[in-house]
Amino acid sequence: MTDTTEQEAFWKGEFGNDYVDRNTGAGWVAANAAAFSKILSRTQHVEGVLELGSNIGLNLMALRQLLPAAKLSAVEINEKAASSLQANLPDVDVHLSSILDFQPETTWDLVFTKGVLIHINPDKLPVVYDLMYQASSRYLMVAEYYNPKPTEVMYRGHEGKLFKRDFAGEILDRFSDVSLVDYGFVYHRDPNFPQDDMTWFLMEKQ
Ligand SMILES: C[S@@+](CC[C@H](N)C(=O)[O-])C[C@H]1O[C@@H](n2cnc3c(N)ncnc32)[C@H](O)[C@@H]1O
After folding, report:
1. Are the CB atoms for 31 and 194 separated by under 8 Å?
2. Is the pTM here over 0.85, yes or no?
């Protein structure tokens, strides 16, 4: 196990527990289903999915509808979130662990993060990129806040907890056999299925 970063402690603790209570609701699952139906339309034969930083499973609930037969797995650092996910979706293989410590014993057709790389200590991002690459047998997807240059923004009054950058560009530069399949943006003012100004990038290992 590596030394815990301040960002991991933040999500493991009270802030992470409160986040679980704040972020619930069918509206989120519907918006996620709309986004993932677009993303998945650019893929083929996705039978296993790993989400890194799943929280209570609002993405996995949407994916369960879209991919009823798929094997779904999750890694989550916050105990309250992981327990809620396991109760909501008993068939998901939930790993209560930091992404930075997770050592996969298998591979998945699709490995993704959504709103998670932005909360990882920037010095540790290569660990997550390597994990995503190693754990994926085909597709990698990141849905995060994009910024062409690495930048930090305050997160609900906290410093050092939210970082924006070109995560997908860094993955594409790091692995020569990974290529971009598609990308898109979901606007917070979308009249039907808003997301928090999320930019998604679907990539494929050759
Ligand atoms: C902003 S939430 C996003 C949750 C989910 N991906 C979604 O789209 O609804 C960030 C999640 O990542 C988890 N997380 C943050 N750092 C983590 C780490 N190092 N290892 C595992 N989970 C982590 C948090 O506990 C939280 O559940």
Report:
1. yes
2. yes
